[in-house]
Specification:
The chain is α/β, with parallel strands linked by helices. The chain has a single domain (3-173), classed as Phosphoglycerate mutase-like (Rossmann fold, 3-Layer(aba) Sandwich), CATH 3.40.50. It has helices at residues 28-48, 61-74, 92-100, 117-125; strands at residues 3-9, 54-58, 81-84, 108-113, 143-148, 160-166. A six-stranded mixed sheet has the order 3-2-4-1-5-6, sandwiched between helices. Helix 1 (28-48) runs parallel beside helix 2 and helix 3 (92-100) packs across helix 4 (117-125). The two termini are 28 Å apart.
Length: 174
């Protein structure tokens, strides 16, 4: 049975703020990109019947802000979104272990988080994925949709197929 793992990197944040890293908020471009991506995903999920059944999100302010726009558009019911401290700056191995612990009945799951962990997980699961954005697969506000033909707990390196990689600046051409 095929499963879909969506990796959504937070939109661009404001490095000029004096706040702690965990509390950094989106800058103007980040808010604009988060909205563009939310509009795209909302339409795509409705058209292709591929809305995530569960969304796991880092507790950082910038990930929460990035997700908030999408969650409003999708009208996510209570319990669909889980905020997890362990996803804040999680490395590839931590993310992989979390994916392996997903409920077996779930078919489509989204992780909203940070690099380098998300990009490394994408590279681990899909080693043939083409690089974009100056050698980066996941720049800010990018979404990767990965098809996996295994149960969550059986996912191994190179077991995924990158079905779609969406960047906000490319949305006008889609």
């Amino acid at each position: 049975m095929s499963r879909t793992l969506m990796l959504y990197r937070h939109a661009r944040s404001d490095w000029g703020q004096a706040a702690l890293d965990h509390e950094r908020r989106l800058d103007a471009r980040g808010r604009r990109d988060a909205r563009s991506m939310a509009v795209f995903m909302s339409a795509c999920f409705a058209r292709e019947h591929c809305q995530p059944e569960q969304i796991l999100c880092s507790t950082a302010s910038r990930t929460r802000q990035t997700l908030a726009v999408l969650a409003d558009m999708l009208a996510c019911p209570p319990g669909q979104i889980l905020f997890e401290d362990s996803l804040y700056l999680a490395g590839c191995e931590q993310l992989l272990q979390r994916v392996r612990r997903l409920e077996p009945g779930l078919q489509r799951v989204m992780l909203v988080g940070h690099n380098e962990g998300l990009q490394q997980l994408l590279e681990l699961l899909c080693p043939d994925a083409p690089c974009k954005a100056g050698g980066r697969l996941l720049a800010t506000a990018n979404l990767a949709m990965i098809r996996l033909d295994a149960d969550w707990h059986r996912i191994q390196p190179a077991s995924g197929s990158l079905e779609r990689l969406v960047r906000p600046e490319e949305l006008g051409s889609l």
